[in-house]
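Weekly structure sync, notes
Attendees: PL, DS, HV (note-taker this week)

Item 1: SDR family oxidoreductase
DS walked through the input record. Source organism listed as Ureibacillus yapensis. Sequence as pasted into the shared doc:
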Amino acid sequence: MNRFEDKVVIITGAGSGLGQAAALQIAKEGARITLVDLNETGLEDTKSKILEVAPNAETLLITANVADENAVQNYVNKTVETFGKIDGFFNNAGIEGKQNLTEDFGSDEFDKVLSVNLKGVFYGMKYVLKVMKEQGSGSIVNTASVGGIRGVGNQSGYAASKHGVVGLTRNSAIEYGQFGISIKAIAPGAIMTPMVEGSLKQMDPVNWEEVGKAFVEPNPMKRFGKPEEVGYLVAFLLSYQADFINAAVVPIDGGQSYKY
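Item 1 (cont.): predicted structure, written out as C-alpha cells:
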C-alpha cells in the first residue's frame, strides 16, 4: 500500500517506541517525514531503520523539547520550509513521570508531566492546525492513553495529562472539522516500549519482567501490545481511509479499558 505517497507527516516522540513504529510504517508507504524528539541519538536510530525499509525515504530530523512553544513552532515552520505542507501529524511525544500516591506526588513533577504531555500536544495542534486550515485538509492523531479514559494508580500527573489530551482532541475536532481536518486520539494500554519498561523498573528494578507478567495477567489478551501494532493503527488513522473519523478516541489495549 502507498497511502502516503506525496504526503508529508510530522511525528513527535519519533526516537523510540510508538513514534518510531509509526514512522517505519508510514515511511514504507511513501511519506516524507519530519522526525521530532529530544533524543538526538534516538532520531538517528529511527532514520537508520527507516532507510532499511524505505531506502528512498525523505526525512527531516529535528531535536526539540515539545514543552517549549518556540521549539514546536520551529519544527512546524521547518517542515513547511522543507516539504511545503503538512498532511498528517502524529502528536505523540510524552513522558510517564514518577509514580506516587496523589498526596505524595511532587508539584514540580506534576508540572513537568503536564508540560510535556498536555502543553506539548496543545502547542503541536496550535501551530499545525494553522497550516492545515490554510490548506483545507489534514489529519491529526494525538497520543492519549487508557489512563486518559480511566484511572491509573500512582500516576496522578500522567492520568491528568492524558485526560486533558482527550479533551483537547474532542474540542479541536469539533472546531476544525469544517476545514477538512480530522482530529482523533489513540488510547494505548500496556505496549512494550522503553517508557513502559521504565515504568516497570520503577516498580521493581530487579524483577521488573515478572512484574510485567503480573501486570498484563488481568488483560483479556494476557500480553503486552507491540509498538508495530500501534504503528499500523496510526497509519490508518492518518490516511485518507480515516478522513471521516473525527473526535474519536480509539483504544488499543487488548480490551483492558472494557474489563472491570
